[in-house]
Model the fold of this input.
Amino acid sequence: MNYDFPPNIEQYCHRIGRCGRQGESGEAYSLMTRNFAAMAADMVELLKTCNQEREPNLENLARQFALGEVTVNDDEEDGPVDGDEEEEEEEPELEGDHPEE
Done:
């Protein structure tokens, strides 16, 4: 189970390759957020090439990214997708954090 999707398809292949070894088959599950929309089309192609099932939401994400309906915020590797708002949490002030006047 890949909870933290790898940053590129090559690393994805390396990770899932560990599921089935020495002629045995295995199953791999990966969670991919919209932050990785730029990789969705490559994932779809990889799954097609390997005759694997493709999640319809993954195919939709690839199509939406190709049409420019979904964009990725390049400022942060795992940052929010453009159009999504992320609230900033204020850090609590700790006693002694303020210099004495």
In short: The CA atoms of residues 76 and 101 lie 37 Å apart. The chain is about 30% helix and 0% strand. Residues 76-88 have pLDDT under 50 and may be disordered. Helices lie at 9-16, 37-49, 56-66.
